[in-house]
Structure formats: structure tokens, C-alpha cells
């Protein structure tokens, strides 16, 4: 499985961005796709995830502002981020969790910068 992330950028507080993560390869082995983020000096944390059966999970800090969705046609997962605030500034990473306890797969990070 390979992951290609895109969509980061700079935005003012209150603005929106959409991140994309395109999965390729043995996508049938993917249990869930998700977005994680890592701010400077902080640990990487879950932002949102979506299982192959459609179950979603969000960090409390983004509930009501971020939405994760999937395009099954090309197995791309999107993270729509609205009402961004400076605390959302981080490098965002796409991650694939695979069946059968296989190691997780990380995509490259994409930087999101929110200015006040």
C-alpha cells in the first residue's frame, strides 16, 4: 500500500482547507485510513479516521469542524477542515491501518499553517 497526501497550505483563522490522501496498491488490505497531525514539540495525534465499513472517529478538538470522507472510486480519503484556528497548525500525515496486524503505513506529511 502506498499513500499520497496533498492539500496542505496556509490559511487565516476561520478559513478552510481540504486534505487528500490517495491510496494505491493492495487497497483491499486496508482496514482504516486516517489523518494524524504533529505540531512542533508535540506528539503525533489522531485527527480523524474512517474504517472500510464506514465508521468514523474524530479527536474531540476537531469534532464539528472537520469531516473525513472517502471516494470509493479511487480510494481517496479527504479531510475537510473548517473553522480552522492556529491550534490546528501542524504537519498532517495520512495513515493506513491494515488487516491482520500488519504494520501501519504512513504517507508523507503535509503542512497546514493557520494564522491569527
Quick rundown:
With 116 residues, the protein is mainly beta.
Notable characteristics:
single chain, 116 residues, mainly beta, 7-stranded mixed sheet, 4-stranded antiparallel sheet, 11 strands, 0% helix, 56% strand, globular
Give a written overview of the molecule:
The chain is an all-beta fold and 116 residues long. Helix content is 0%, strand content 56%. It is built from no helices and eleven strands. Strand 7 and strand 8 form a beta hairpin. The protein starts with a strand and ends with a strand.
Strand content: over 45%
Structural class given helices, strands, pairing?
mainly beta
> Ends: how far apart?
37 Å
Mean pLDDT reading: 95
The total of beta strands comes to 11
Instruction: Profile the largest sheet.
Output: 7 strands, mixed
> Are there runs of 5+ residues with pLDDT below 50, and where?
none
Radius of gyration: 13 Å
- 3D shape: globular
Oligomer: single chain
- Element pattern in H and E: EEEEEEEEEEE
Total helix count? 0
Layout of secondary structure:
Blueprint: E1 2-6, E2 9-12, E3 17-24, E4 30-38, E5 45-51, E6 56-58, E7 66-71, E8 76-81, E9 90-98, E10 105-106, E11 110-115
Parallel strand pairs: 2-11
Antiparallel strand pairs: 1-3, 3-8, 4-5, 4-9, 5-6, 7-8, 9-10, 9-11
